[in-house]
Amino acid sequence: DIQMTQSPSSLSASVGDRVTITCRASQGISTYLNWYQQKSGKAPKLLIYGASSLHSGAPSRFRGSGSETVFTLTINSLQPEDFATYYCQQSYTVPLTFGGGTKVAIK
Amino acid sequence: QVESVQSGAEVKKPGSSVRISCKASRGTFRNFAFNWIRQAPGEGLEWMGGIIPIPGTTKEAQKFQGRVTISADDSTNTGHMELHGLKPEDTAVYYCARGACNGGSCHVLGMWYFDTWDQGTPVTVSP
After folding, report:
1. Facing residue for A94 by CB, picked from B44, B95, B110
2. Which of B78, B76, B73, B74 is nearest to B96 (CA)?
3. Is B74 part of the contact surface with chain A (CB cutoff 8 Å)?
């Protein structure tokens, strides 16, 4: 199975900050990497697919980049509604696997 | 879009089975995959398996093989996931999500990302 490792597992930031979350795959996955946002008690929502494609309806301040084994999700100018947990997921091969999540909290 | 058919939370005894169903539009049923992903309390996301309703091809995580049955009903545009032999560690919220992908054979290979999710069905397994 492909292991997905996110860092950090949590962070504190202020409104307006730029935040970067890293996701590492245990083997090369090309650009088959997706990012989700989950707020407490709610279902996850897709933000980015194919490493860098913004899902319809996701704010443009979310940006994804990377390939093969190292990927990043950047949130430019953090907004109050962005405080949530973020997960990466590889869609290169089954079993489809997720990272452990990164919780973004208010500083 | 996908929507849960369940009316609320499920409470089950160890050793029993639970069936989680979700309904989709005809367009979704014909062109996308149904997937089931679970989340134990305070934990991350775990993919269990998925199905391409037409032609009915399934992909399952090895962890659940032999214990999970995934199917789709063409007459009602509904996907079903049944988990057998329930254990207390199966206590989780179970989500149905629409699987999308890009590329010619991506559906057959199960190369899905999840672009729409239902609200989730809490399942508690307790004596």
Report:
1. B110
2. B78
3. no
Nearest CA in chain B to A34: B113
User: In Å, what is the CA distance from A32 to each residue of B38, B101, B124?
Assistant: 21, 10, 33
B75 to chain A nearest CA, in Å?
Answer: 27
Residue of chain A minimizing CA distance to B117: A43
Mean per-residue pLDDT, A29-51: 97
CB hemisphere CA count around B100 (13 angstroms): 15
Q: Cα(A10)–Cα(A12) distance, rounded to whole angstroms? A: 7
pLDDT at site B7 = 67
Residue B76 neighbours by CB distance under 10 Å: 13
pLDDT at A42: 97
Distance from CA of A4 to the nearest CA of B (A): 12
Minimal CA–CA distance to B36: which of B92, B95, B89, B115?
A: B95
Which pair of tokens denotes residue A22?
């890293």
- Average pLDDT for runs of 10 along chain B of length 127: 80 97 88 95 97 91 95 92 97 96 84 95 96
Q: Taking a contact as any Cβ pair under 8 Å apart, which residues of chain B between 94 and 113 contact chain A?
A: 95, 100-102, 109-113
Mean pLDDT score, A20-32: 97
Distance of CA B35 to the CA centre of its chain: 4
